[in-house]
Structures are given as C-alpha cells and as structure tokens.
Amino acid sequence: MSVVFSCYHSLKEPSVQLRFPIIRSVLLVSAVSFAMAGCGDEVLNIVKSKLTVPEKLDFGLHPVGATASQQFMGKSTIANSTALKIRDVRLEGDDAKFFVIAARPDSISQDKPGEFLLEFKPTEGTETELRQYQARLIIESDAQNNQATVELTGSSGLPDIELRKTGETSAIANPIDMGTVGANTTRGIPMELINTGVAPLKVENIELEDPDKTFRMIEPTSFPFELTGKDGGGGKRGVQIQCAPLERKNHEAMMRIKSSDPNEGTLEYKLLCIGGDSGCPKPVIKIAKVARGQIGADNTIGTPNTIDLDGTDTKDPEGDTVAYRWFFEDKDIPSGSNAGFDGVGGKKDSRSARPSFDIDLVGTYKISLEARDKNGNACDPATLTINAVPSQKVHIELLWPTPKADLDVHLINTGGQGAEIWSSPCDAHWNNRNPDWGLRHAATAADFCKAPAAPADVESCNDDPSLDIDTTHMPRKCTPSEEKKYPDLCNAGAARDCETYISSKNVTDKAEQDEIRRLCAIALGPENINIVNPKPGLYRVLVHFFDGVFPTDARVRIFLNGVKLRPRNATNPEGDFAPSRKLTPNDLWDVGIVEWPADAETKNKDDFQKLIVETNAISGGVKQENGKVCVLPPGK
Questions:
Q1: Contacts (Cβ under 8 Å, ≥6 apart) of 539
Q2: Which DSSP helix (H) or strand (E) runs through 607?
Q3: Which end of the chain is more exposed for a tag (fewer CB within 10 A), N or C?
C-alpha cells in the first residue's frame, strides 16, 4: 500500500510564485535526500539576483602623464537575496594597460552595494593631436548574469603654454623691454597667456624676482587657474606687468611662469625698463586764438566766443607719435550750455591736435587734454579753466532743456510802451538779428519807434542789439537701435519730418509717437542777445515758444554791465533774472523790463537790482490786433 502526500512550495521571483505537487511514497519518506521537516510555508531560493553596472564610463580629456579617477557602484536587483559573490574583475582590450583597477568589492547585496574605483593613466598624445583610449572592464560573479561588462573610454594630449603680446599670433620676445618710464608714472605691455595645445593647462603661479621692487603684477590676481585646450575651445588669460621706477637708472627683473606644460614647466622672461624723467607724453594746452576780444587774467574771455586750442607742444620722451583726446564732462560746463568742440552741436570730445571750442554762456568751462604714446601710455590729463564773462554791457541768455522745442528770445526797445513784435524795428529776434536802433536821430526810443528809421552812421552803430546765438534745427544722431527701428528717419540723407512719418505709418501709440518725435529734436538752447553800447532807456524781454511738441522749462539770465540781475520777490535756486517757467507751444512769456540808466557806469550791483520791473506774465497765445502781433505794456 502506498500513500501520496501532496504539498506545495513556492518559488519567489519578483512578480511570480509557482506551486507544484511533490509526490512522496510512504515507504520512501525516510530515504528522501532533501527530507522535508514539513510542507507548510517553506521557501526555496531557486532564482538568483542580477548585477547592475553602468554600460559606459568616460574619463574625458586629460594631459599626458596625468591620473584621472572614476568610481561607480555595483548593485543587486533582488531584495532579501543572498549576497552575490564577485569572483573576478579584469581589464581587456588593446588599451587596457592605460587603466587600473584601484578598488573592487568581494560581494554585493541590495542593501550593501559594492564600490569599484578605476584610474586612467594616459601616456601618449601630442600638442596638436588627441590620443583616444578604449578598454573593457569585465566583472564575473555568481549572479544570474554571471558576467557584466563596462566600456571604458578616455583621451589625452599635451598642453602648450605661450606668452604673447595682446592681439599678436607669436610668442613675445625675450627680454621684455618696457622702455623709458618716468618717475611717478607706470608703463606696461598688454600680454596674455595662451594654451595652444589640445589638453588643459594648469598655471600654478607667476613669480617676480625683482631686487629694486620696480615691477609689479596687476593681473592675474589668484592662482592656480586652468586654461582649456584647443579641443575645449582654447584658453587665454590677460597678464599685466608694469614698471614703476623709483630711481633714474636701468632696472631688471626676472619673471617665472610655472605651469603643467610637460615641456616648458617654467617659462622665464627677463624684464627691463629705464627710469627716466618722463615715460609718457605730458600734455600741454595752449590757446592759439580767440575769435572775439582778448584773453584776460585767469583766462577770462568774453562770451559768446570761439577759441582755437593747440596741443602740439605735447612731446613724447622717446619721440613717439602722440595721440590726442580733448574732452569735458557735463559738470565741467555751465548748466544749460550747449558748448562743444569743432562747431555748434556740443561735441564732448575731439581727437584733433588743434580743435576749436565754442563758448555760449557766462560761467566756468574746464577742458582736459589726454595724450598717449604708441603703447597707450598716458600721463595725467592737463586741464584748462576758462572763465566766460559778458563781453557787452547788455547780455541776455535764454536756456531750455527739452528736445523738439524752439524758443525765441525777444528784446524790445519800448520806452515802456506797447510795441509790435516781429515786424517792428524795435524788436530784436531771430528774424531781425541786428536791427538799427540809431537813437541819435530821435529823442527817445518811443519817438524812434513811431518814425521811419534814419540811415545809420558810425555814431549810432554800437547801440544796436545783436542776436549772436540761435542754434536751431540740429537733429541729434540716432542710436544704433533707433537706426534699425526707424531707417527712414535716421538715414543720413533723410529729412527729419517726424509728423509726416507718424501720419504715413499710421502710428497710433502715444508712447511710440513721442519716441519718434524725439528723433526730430532740434538743438537745445541757449539763445543770446547783446548790446555793446546801449542808450539810456527801458528794454523789455520776452520769450516765445515758437515751435515744438513737449512743454519745457525756460530760463532767462540778464547781465547789465557784467552784473547778473536777480529778482527781488521770487524764490529762484538758479539765481537767474526770473524763475524758470513752464511753457507750452505758442506761449508768450513777458519776462520783465530792465532799465539802462544814464549813470550806469557808476552804479553797483544793488543799484542795478532797483531798476527791474518784474512782469513775469504768461499769455496763453500771442495777441493779434488789427492783423498785427503785439505785446502790451505792464498791467494792460
């Protein structure tokens, strides 16, 4: 008789459990070689874990002779499995000798991965060509995949260090001679370190052996640093070594550049310079000519004026050609001035040896001249301070800051009465720049304005007003972005008609309209009217907003006999004759009336202040009467 016992044992896979019957004869129970203590829940570990490793390991680019390391973790894929035993780890392939197994595990489990450490030791390659390396790492274990493979790659070559003058293509000559350098000045030659090889270069340090403490390194400022090779895009770093001699003698030092270049681990250069009286061109400024009048003490010059400058007395100690740069900053000229070099327009610098400079307002002007030799070395700039004063007894200035605004100053010889502007011979303005006020033929200005003008003669010429500055219609230069956006307006030959452009392009956005209108900006002020020898009487000053788009703040300054008049009853931080006034297009500002007394030569500043009649009224438009444009006397 035989009895069959059936029990089921499970085989554990990650996602599958299998059950199968085990048939056992009652007579053979004691003889079963794998006798069961019982059926129940016993588990058999029949399926083994797998070993996971990366497919590839790239060591990258390294210089010949360098050692690079890489590590990775080997892992087991099944939890609670028996640890995998690592039986063998080896390198195979033609380039296996360039790789080293530095560390390996004996076993791996899921809760305890194993670390593999490999080294790459390239010994072949040149400065111009890379050497590529390939090998395989073979790992044998008792895992289900009993052999795992990792592909190993790397490359190597040589770095090549060179020191060059900035912008040149060959190594700098040795020794490096900085020439004659004056006391309290410095001179350097712009240089750069370049890696011309294919592998990265490490610059360890730059040392100066300098017994006189004459040379100094400005940059680099920190070490070590790396320069990539050609394969990485190339690498370079600026080097600044300067000579700053303390004595008048020959100076010598040694510069050593230490790097990882296997062929030139240390570059040595001798540094030379000569301490002299001057190592840079010392700028010299002369005033060659003044267009009007003479130069007074402390460079006092009448305004408006043009001066011719001369920098040709500037000499380089070594006889090198000198490059000039004349310049000034906004703070160096009076507020509101449009002064500048080489004509109207306010150019802030000039590269000419003999530029001209236009002065347009009373005040102080500071002009600087910088001179450089062929190596770019310069001493401190020289400066010229000009004190501009009124050159005539009546001097009136109108200033405003806003682009696209054309303001006009009017000076009317009224005798205190109303007078027709623009068409009257009593009104000096842009369209009547030098009217004949020949008062010799009339008892008073009022009488003259009512009668035909008599021929002028030498006795009456100096009482005539003159509009000396009226710089209008000077479009500013477009910026590159404006040239790209508005080529029709910014083209050198294009007419600046912004309103037509806005209409033709159907520009409706107000912000863009304002942007376009700024391209049609005319030159800013000032305007200036003068009288050399005024006759006694009353003179009326008006400002008309002739043309423009945007409101602007107008300022008026009046000088009588060189005295700057100030209002008595107004807060005026500018110290002008009248506070600045906000004007809109077509406004007429009746600034005020001043008197030129018969005894003007004996009056002091306070006396002149008493001669002011401050009207300071603004009309919303110019008044028309019987087809004529008029201004009314004060209070009318």
A1: 394, 411, 412, 413, 414, 593, 594, 595, 596
A2: helix 605-609
A3: N
**Paired tokens of 259:** 């790097």
Q: How many CA atoms lie within 13 A of 532 on its CB side?
A: 12
Report the C-alpha gap between 339 and 362 in whole angstroms.
Answer: 11
What Cα–Cα distance (Å) separates residue 596 from each residue in 206, 376, 602?
76, 56, 12
The tens digit of pLDDT for each residue in 82-130 reads 788 999 999 999 999 999 999 999 999 888 899 999 999 999 989 988 9
For the chain, the maximum distance between any two Cα atoms, rounded to a whole number of angstroms, is 165
- The position carrying tokens 């791996």 is 108
Report whether 66 contacts 79 (CB < 8 A): no
Identify the H or E element spanning 608. helix 605-609
Question: What letter represents residue 503's amino acid?
Answer: S
Q: How many CB atoms sit inside 10 A of residue 596's CB?
A: 21
For the record, the structure tokens of 452 come out as: 């035909």
Question: Rounded to an integer, what distance in angstroms lies between the CA atom of residue 55 and that of residue 45?
Answer: 28
The Cα 399–Cα 401 span in angstroms is 7
Cβ–Cβ under 8 Å, residues 84 and 49:
yes
Phi, psi of 285 (to 5 degrees): -110, 130
Tokens of 469: 């500055």
* Two tokens, residue 178: 């900085």
Minimal CA–CA distance to 427: which of 324, 326, 542? Answer: 542
What ranges in 401-538 are assigned the alpha helix state H? 445-450, 480-485, 487-490, 498-504, 510-518
Q: What is the pTM of this model?
A: 0.50
Structural contact between residues 255 and 271, judged by C-beta atoms closer than 8 angstroms: yes
Highest mean pLDDT of the ranges 159-168, 402-411, 436-445: 159-168
Label the pairing between strands 250-259 and 225-227. unpaired
Round to whole Å and give the CA distance between 550 and 514: 9
| One-letter amino acid for residue 194 of the chain | I
On the CB side of 473, CA atoms within 13 Å amount to 4
| Joined tokens for residue 541 | 């000053």
Sign for the CA dihedral angle at 241, 244, 247, 250 comes to: positive
pLDDT band at 233, cuts 50/70/90?
low
Pairwise CA distance, residues 372 & 446, whole Å: 61
| Residue 343 pLDDT > 80 | no
Mean pLDDT of 136-156: 94
Are 191 and 163 in contact by the 8 Å Cβ rule? The answer is yes
- What are the E-state strand segments in 321-434? 323-327, 340-341, 349-350, 356-359, 363-372, 382-390, 394-399, 405-413, 419-420, 427-428
356: its two tokens: 């001209």
H-helix or E-strand spanning residue 155: strand 147-157
Of the candidates 401, 416, 250, the residue with the CA atom closest to the CA atom of residue 334: 401
Which runs of E-coded beta strand occur in 183-339?
187-188, 191-195, 201-209, 215-219, 225-227, 235-243, 250-259, 266-276, 286-290, 300-303, 305-310, 323-327
| 3-state SS class at 483 | helix
Question: Tens digit of pLDDT for each residue in 266-320?
Answer: 999 999 998 876 567 889 999 999 998 889 888 999 999 999 999 999 988 777 7
Q: Is 330 helix (H, G, I), strand (E, B) or coil?
A: helix
Q: Which amino acid is at 276?
A: G
Q: What's the rounded Cα separation, in Å, for the pair 407 and 547?
A: 7
CB atoms within 10 A of CB 375: 17
